[in-house]
Design goal:
About 15% of the residues lie in helices and about 40% in strands. With about 140 residues, the chain is an alpha+beta fold.
């Protein structure tokens, strides 16, 4: 694993509240908060209602953008700008694997038909450090 990828994974390995940008049907940006969990292969997952606005927007245009990392203005640390393609996944295995106690406040059970997982496959990640003029950029070899 490259040094840059290690630094990216270090930020993403902790579940966190981040900003997700999608595009509306008429091409305007829309941003919402999502609680992400990321695997070692950098696939970003978050729970959603299958009939949510973001799911509809992703079906129309899977290109998304996430801003991750620094959420406390009193603690300056590196953050990420992520471009990727998203899709809704409602497979039984993924919903059960992703399930955790906090989701019980939102969905009935892992088999709740309203519950799905958005998966974002990044193809470009900018690693940003305050005070640095040049960004470090990771690109997917399959992008």
């Amino acid at each position: 694993m490259s040094e840059l990828r290690k630094k990216i994974h270090e930020i993403l390995k902790v579940p966190q509240l981040d900003s997700l940008a999608t595009l509306t049907g008429d091409g305007k940006p829309w941003v919402c908060y999502v609680m992400i969990v990321t695997s070692e292969n950098l696939i970003i997952n978050f729970a959603t209602f299958v009939k949510s606005r973001k799911v509809e927007q992703i079906k129309n245009n899977p290109e998304v953008h996430l801003t991750c990392g620094s959420t406390d203005p009193n603690e300056i640390k590196p953050y990420l700008q992520i471009q990727g393609r998203a899709q809704l996944n409602t497979s039984h295995d993924l919903r059960h694997d992703f399930w955790c106690g906090i989701l019980e406040k939102i969905f009935q059970v892992p088999d709740d038909p309203n519950y799905g997982i958005i998966q974002v496959i990044p193809y470009r990640i900018e690693y940003c450090e305050y005070g640095e003029m040049e960004l470090e950029v990771w690109s997917s070899p399959t992008a």
